[in-house]
Amino acid sequence: MNEKLDMSQQCALTVHSANRILGCTKGRVASRLKEWILPLHSSLVRPHLESCIHLWSPEHKKGRDVLERVQTGATETIRGVEHLSYEERLRELGLLSLEKRRLQGDLIAVFQYLKGAHRKDRENHFSKACCDRNRSNGFKLREGRFRLDIREKFFTVMVVKHWNGFPREVVEASLLETFKARLDRALSNLV
User: What is the reported pTM?
Assistant: First the structure.
């Protein structure tokens, strides 16, 4: 991080290390079948791209795109899906984009928080919207209004729009495993 709190240097270092590992796996593994490449990508490359991502998550689109290009390169090596677009490859392989995976992690944290994982502070960070005029989601959170744009990148502000956009059956799940399964289906349907 530099003096302006810019994470572009962290993105560049992360991409460099992930690309080195991806290059090693491409050079060492003769098979290009998804049964070989996906486990290697999930266990060797993706952890570099997601290590402490919630702490240094790239703020700008350029940083997010640089990280996403590594996963794009990994999916292009898989035989049988190389002719598809990136989104179609992800859908065919049952993967989520890195941005959707970050959102998934954020929403799981919100779910745990709202279900009582942090009982002391629950009322301080999120509050339920007073009325529900929309039938799609009965557990909407209140969106704060701020005079400055600086707060729009705060975790508690950023996730509320996403949370409120999901259907009722996703956000009103009673168990974490149920929530994760429904969230995965909802995220895979997002463009």
Answer: 0.74
